[in-house]
Each structure stands twice: as structure tokens, then as C-alpha cells.
Amino acid sequence: MGDGYTARHARSPAGIGGPGLPTLDHDDHVRLIRDGVTGDGTTWADLGCGEGAFTLALADLLGPAGQIHSVDCDECALLAQARVLRDRFPGVAVIPLVADFNRPLELPPLDGIVMANSLHFERDRLAVVPGVCETRVGNSP
Fold it and tell me: Domain extents for the chain?
């Protein structure tokens, strides 16, 4: 496996997501997205974020200048995420949005989008991508 793969990632019956899957922690989430979170941009969205494992990683990488729009259909998951983010990264602005990323979203211009653990659950992934691409990234109209 790539950089950062360690013995604790060995297949384990207690792994996240079901038997035989690797168990990941916060440091793994940060490592998985670090190379994609580059430049001076600090306004991001996490689409289909759930309780926010990758939102937390994004908050860690962006730091206090960060602004994250966390989007999920599950309001309870967003509330749980907000509590953890307030405790661990109080300086990062997180704007929750109860919405389906398959529909047009009201978001400001973004510097990047994270869709970890969301796109692969979509039945027709290729149909989702054009809508996501319409979300303004790179602060350009």
C-alpha cells in the first residue's frame, strides 16, 4: 500500500465498515486528504459528510482560517459533528447544511470539495458528478 499504511491497517474483524476492513483513525483521514488540500484556499465543502471524520481532517489541515460547509441529509449526524468540531477545532468555522448533494446547493465559491465516503454510495456516480462540478470551485464564476 501507499505511504502511511501501517500494521494497524491490517484486515481486522472489528474494522470500520464491517468484517475484514481496515480501521482508520483521525491521523489516517488527515493523511488521505493532505495532498489534495493545497494552496491558500480555506473555504471548502464536505459533501455527504455524515458525522464528519473527513470534516475533522479538513478542519485540522485548514486551521483557524478555515471555513467548511458540511453537507449531509442527516441532521442528527450534522449535530453530532458540530459538537465534536466545537471541542476539537473551535477556531474553524463550520457551516452545516441539511441537503442532498444530488440537488443544486447554495454554497459560496469554494477552494475545494471533499466527498470521502459519499460518492461511492451513489447508484449512478456519473450522473452525480456534473452537478458537483457546477458547484463553484477555485473562487471563479
Answer: 26-134
The per-residue b/e assignment along 106-117, b for 16 or more CB within 10 angstroms, e otherwise, is ebeebbbbbbbb
Instruction: Specify the CATH superfamily of domain 26-134.
Output: Vaccinia Virus protein VP39 (3.40.50.150)
pLDDT in tens, the chain (141 residues): 333 333 333 333 333 445 666 788 999 999 999 999 977 778 999 999 999 999 999 999 999 999 999 999 999 999 999 999 999 999 999 999 999 988 888 899 899 999 887 877 777 777 777 777 766 655 444
* Residue 100 grid cell: 442532498
Q: Tell me the C-alpha distance between 141 and 29, whole Å.
A: 30
